[in-house]
Structure formats: C-alpha cells, structure tokens
Design a protein that fits this description.
With 499 residues, the chain is α+β, with helices and mostly antiparallel strands. 57% of the residues lie in helices and 8% in strands. It is built from 17 helices and nine strands. The strands form three sheets. Strands 4-5-1-6 form a four-stranded antiparallel sheet, sandwiched between helices. α3 crosses α13 and α11 packs antiparallel against α12. The radius of gyration is 31 Å and the shape is elongated.
C-alpha cells in the first residue's frame, strides 16, 4: 500500500502580509470599494463633527504640568471672575499722533470700538466693557510711545471660549474698515483671539497651497520613476485617500479628546505623502518586476507582498513605535503631532497591504499602460545608473561605507551648536496683521509693555499675606526688566491673589 504524502499547506507557510494581500486580490472590487468608503467616510465624519478643533497658536494651555500652570490652577480653583480678553489697537503715524490724520484715526477707533455691538447667546450688547483713549490716559499708563508717533487703544472684552468668539465676531471687519478709512496711518489690532484666528487662516491657506504644489510634483516624480501613467496614478490614489483618512482621524480626535496643534495638519501632509508614496513604490515596483519575469498576476502580488509587503509592514511598525514616544511627553502639541503621524502611517500601511493588492489585481498587466517616452522603456534587471552605483559600492564596501559615514557626520555637526528656545509672534510672517502689530509694539515700546509676570499668592485674605504682597511688589520692581505698579486681582472667594 502506497501512502501519498499530504500536500503542504501553503497558507501556513505564507506570511500574514501574503495572506492579507491574497484575500484582497481575490475580493478586489469589495476591498477597493470598502477602502474608499472607509477613508473618505472618516474625513466626512470629521467634517460633520465640526472639523479639526485646533489650539490657539499663541494661547497658553493650562493643562501642561508646569509651575505656571499650577499657579493658574490655584487661582482658578478659588473661583475667578469672568475672563477678560485685552484688545490693543495700534495707531502709528511717523509724523506724530498730534497730526490731524492720526488724531482723526484715534477719534474714529475709540468711537467705533465703543459703539461696536454683537450678539452673545441671543442677547445683543456692547463688544467691549471699556475702551481707553490713550490721549486721555495718565502718563504712567504708557499708552503713547516715547517718540510720540504711536498710540495704543486698550479695550477689554469679557468672556472666553464660544462666548468670546461670539462677542468679538464683528471686530475683524471693524478693524479692516478702520484701516481702509485711514490709509495715511497704520491701524492694527492685536490680541490672542485675533492672532489665533489670523494664524490659523495662514496655516490652512499654506496647507491648501502646499497640496496644490506637492501633489502634481509627486505625480511627476512617479511618472519618471515608473515611466507609465497608470503605474504612477496608483500610489497617488493611495496617498490622497490616506491623507483624507488621517485628517478624519485627527479631526475626530480633536473633537472627542483634545484640541490639536494647528500645525498637525501640515505634518499629516508632510509625512503622509512621503510614507504612502514610498510604500507604494516598493510594492508596485516589485509587482511589475514579477510580471516582466512572466508570473501570473496573483503570483506577482503574492511575491511582492512576501518581500516588499513585509518590509512595508515592519517599516511602518517601527515608525509608529518611535513616534509613539511623543505621547509620553505631557504636552498637547507633541501629543497631537504623534496622533497625526501615527494615523497617517497606520492608514498608509493598511492601504499598502489591502488596497494596493486589490487595485493591482484589477489592473493586472494594465498597470504598464500609457508609457512615457524614454522613461517608460523596458530595461533589463541589473542595468542602468543605479545598478552601476550599487555594484561600485559592493566592490569597495569598507572604503565607500566609511566615506559615507564621514559625510553624514560632517553634515550633522551643526547640531552641536543648536540652540533651542521658545518662539513668539515674530516667528510668523508679516502678512499677519497681529505680527505687524507685535513688531510695532516691540519697536516703539522696547521695554516690553505687554509681557506680564504673574504671581499667585495663597491665603491672600490674611493680614500677614497682605503685608507680604506689598513687600513682593517692592522686591520685584528692583529686578532688571520689571516695572510697576503691580496690579492685584483677588479670586472670587478672596483666598488667592494674582499679582
């Protein structure tokens, strides 16, 4: 009796990436449809949820575990009055604010801001609780620059969050109208609310502009790399859908968990296009190579997934693990950067292992259609400039490897002189009106009139603490760079004072 050995179970020997790719290729149309539904659906869901909820670019996040945040927590826990946003309108005239043009502008600014009204919670009322005319303020208020060319109009708007958004909604249009009505002088507004609004618009405009530039350039590079329009189009589809899905994940996270950095969307584009296209290049290139060797479409997909597919999986896994280290930093900026990067890399990996095999199964040999002259010509494997370079390196690995290491070290030496620091509004472009106002204030008031040192003092309702606060003011004003007089704001219950 002859016993025939059982045929080996090829599925058991195949890597998970091959099994996933084979399944996707076998069910190509449902997988492609599901991919578009999932990626575009995530983006649409985030838009329906309110879009991406971003942090203010110049606001303070009180959740960060720093001493300054603890001071605010102390003060807030004691019950504070309604927050107040200070709006500064800068009027500058090199001829001097006593000139008729500047005087008329100041009169108009004070009048319009005082009369400005908005609707908050269905109730109409004035935007500002008070508007200070710099010409009528005492000299110690320092609202007029030393050279008498610039004046600051100070206005206070009570509220925070959505209340402040509703209250200050008419302000940008009013400032534009004031600037247009007085072209002979400079009229600029400055506040956290205005700066965040303008910078967010700049970031979003830059994002739209970068996509209009990078996507065509990416497609052009793919055309050169593949030499065929269809082959170049497939990675681009994966990249765009991966970006949409990552934007969706980021938007839903920002609405459900925490607001994210305004720059996280830029990071999605930067990392997403690079990763998605890079992974697609590996798989599509290997697939086309196997087709040239005479393999059937399914076999070519299986081989590509067993080699390039495994490299994509472990590469993506390594990137996500390394980026996840940012989550250990208790800072919303780094957390949002980590979420954005992990999301786009994860989607790119999933798409490379599912969408790409399904799309290649549909296209088959058609992936080589619409060849580009010169770039699309057939080449024998192991020929060309890159192959010659590799062979040269392999003949002298120690010499050329050492030379490459030295070159990398030389390029990296400037890191030894890298100085880290905090950035302010001046790091943004002058196209932002708030940045222009900020620079003008720094130029005209070099002593720094807007930056405050705030000290939270507990047990403020006790006589001994009151005496200590008086001593504190005297001690602080002797510190170089600080000036008085101090302003003391008690909490609602009087137990904590903010000096």
């Amino acid at each position: 009796m002859t016993v025939t050995p059982a045929a080996p179970d090829r599925r058991r020997r195949e890597a998970a990436t091959v099994r996933i790719a084979t399944f996707s290729a076998r069910h190509r149309w449902p997988v492609v449809a599901l991919w578009f539904v999932a990626t575009v659906g995530l983006f649409v869901a985030s838009i329906a949820a309110g879009g991406t909820n971003t942090q203010g670019a110049v606001s303070r996040d009180e959740r960060a575990k720093f001493e300054a945040a603890e001071a605010y927590d102390l003060f807030n826990a004691s019950g504070t009055a309604e927050p107040v946003q200070t709006v500064i309108v800068v009027v500058s005239d090199e001829a001097g604010i006593a000139e008729p043009a500047a005087g008329a502008a100041l009169d108009d600014v004070v009048a319009r801001l005082s009369a400005l009204r908005s609707t908050v919670g269905g109730v109409e009322g004035p935007v500002f609780a008070d508007v200070v005319d710099p010409r009528r303020a005492p000299p110690q208020a320092d609202l007029v620059s030393a050279d008498r060319t610039t004046a600051r109009v100070i206005a206070h708007a009570p509220g925070d969050g959505d209340v402040l958004d509703q209250r200050l909604a008419p302000l940008p249009e009013a400032l534009d109208s004031l600037a247009g009505a007085h072209p002979d002088v400079t009229v600029l507004g400055l506040s956290n609310w205005l700066a965040n609004r303008e910078i967010s618009r700049v970031v979003n405009d830059d994002l739209d502009g970068s996509l209009r530039l990078t996507i065509p350039l990416t497609f052009a590079i793919l055309l050169i790399a593949f030499g065929a329009v269809v082959a170049a189009f497939v990675p681009l589809v994966l990249a765009v859908t991966a970006l949409l899905a990552a934007f969706g994940v980021l938007g839903l996270y920002s609405q459900a968990v925490d607001p994210v950095s305004a720059y996280a969307s830029q990071l999605v584009v930067l990392i997403g296009l690079a990763v998605a296209v890079d992974y697609s290049l590996f798989l599509v290139s290997r697939f086309r190579t196997e087709l040239r060797r005479g393999r059937q479409v399914r076999d070519a997909i299986r081989t590509a997934s067993a080699t390039a597919g495994r490299a994509v999986f472990f590469s993506g896994l390594a990137v996500m693990i390394s980026i996840a280290g940012l989550l250990l930093l208790d800072d919303p900026l780094f957390k949002s950067m980590a979420i954005a990067t992990i999301a786009v890399v994860l989607v790119s990996v999933v798409g490379s292992l599912t969408f790409l095999p399904a799309a290649l199964s549909i296209l088959g040999g058609g992936v080589n259609r619409l060849r580009i002259p010169f770039f699309g010509r057939e080449r024998e494997e192991g020929t060309g400039a890159w192959a010659s370079l590799v062979r040269a390196v392999m003949r002298r690995p120690v010499l050329l490897g050492g030379a490459a290491a030295v070159l990398l070290i030389v390029i990296g030496t400037p890191v030894a002189r890298l100085h880290l620091g905090a950035v302010d509004l001046s790091s943004f472009p002058d196209s932002v009106d708030s940045v222009r106002a900020f620079r003008l204030l720094n130029d005209k008031w070099p002593s720094g009139t807007e930056l405050q040192l705030q000290v939270a003092v507990t047990r403020a309702n006790e006589p001994a603490t009151t005496t200590a606060i008086d001593r504190l003011e005297g001690e602080l004003t002797r510190v170089s760079g600080l000036s008085g007089p101090a302003q003391i704001a008690p909490s609602t219950d009087g137990t904590v004072a903010m000096v």
